[in-house]
Specification:
The chain is about 55% helix and about 15% strand. It contains 8 helices and 5 strands; from the N terminus they run βαβααβααβααβα. A 5-stranded parallel beta sheet has the order 2-3-1-4-5, with helices on both faces. Helix 2 crosses helix 3 (about 70-90) and helix 4 crosses helix 7.
Length: about 210
């Protein structure tokens, strides 16, 4: 997808368990890319759009009990709306879209909640593949310490036993994507903020240059 200036949009996704650092590194990267003169669009899932707002209520436990299968379908619906409402238009304008969580998160979190993998995969099968996905690989214990420091209310998936299963499935699906040839890279997210930022810069800037060569 190109603009009148010839520069195509670039769809970048950060993936990782709660406390992996995706959100803070997203903010750093957007500032870095903006300093380089790039037009960047920041977004995340679940979104702040109508379906995304309902998902956030469910994650806070406001509609318990709630069917895990229904939640998986809500995530897919939010993603379809997200693509049409935000991601595709930004890419059409030649922007770098930096999204915190996307399809890989559903394959991990919704299957950890008991929804069969094939059902989750089928619900997300038609969605655009990111130009690059970065998986933030971090031990569950490190992520838990970081979440504790935030001092925020705990969501339904932020229980240690659940996070262990989510982390296992997340890594398993990320490896499966890599083996399938999808554009995904891994960073050691247990390292310091500055070290993780350096890893990201070393992976992302060459990918952008390659896409626009």
């Amino acid at each position: 997808m190109t603009t009148s200036t010839g520069k195509r949009g670039f769809f970048l996704v950060f993936e990782g368990i709660d406390g992996a650092g995706t959100t803070s590194q997203q903010a750093w990267l957007i500032a870095r890319l903006s300093d380089l003169g790039l037009s960047v669009y920041k977004t995340a899932e679940p979104t702040a759009n109508p379906v995304g707002k309902l998902i956030r209520q469910v994650l806070r436990g406001e509609h318990a009990p709630f069917s895990p299968h229904a939640l998986a379908l809500l995530f897919a619906s939010d993603r379809a709306d997200h693509l049409a409402r935000e991601i595709e238009p930004a890419l059409a304008q030649g922007q770098v879209v930096v999204c915190d969580r996307y399809v890989l998160s559903s394959l991990a979190y919704q299957t950890a909640a008991g929804v069969p993998l094939d059902l989750v995969a089928q619900a997300n099968a038609t969605f655009r593949t990111p130009d690059l996905t970065i998986y933030f690989d971090v031990p569950v214990e490190v992520a838990a310490q970081r979440r504790a420091k935030r001092g925020q209310a705990q969501e339904i998936f932020e229980v240690d036993d659940v996070q262990r299963e989510v982390a296992r499935l997340y890594r398993e699906q990320a490896q499966a994507w890599k083996q399938a040839g999808k554009p995904i890279q891994f960073v050691d997210a247990a390292r310091s903020f500055e070290e993780v930022s350096a890893q990201l810069e070393a992976l992302i800037l060459p990918a952008l240059r390659g896409a626009w060569a």
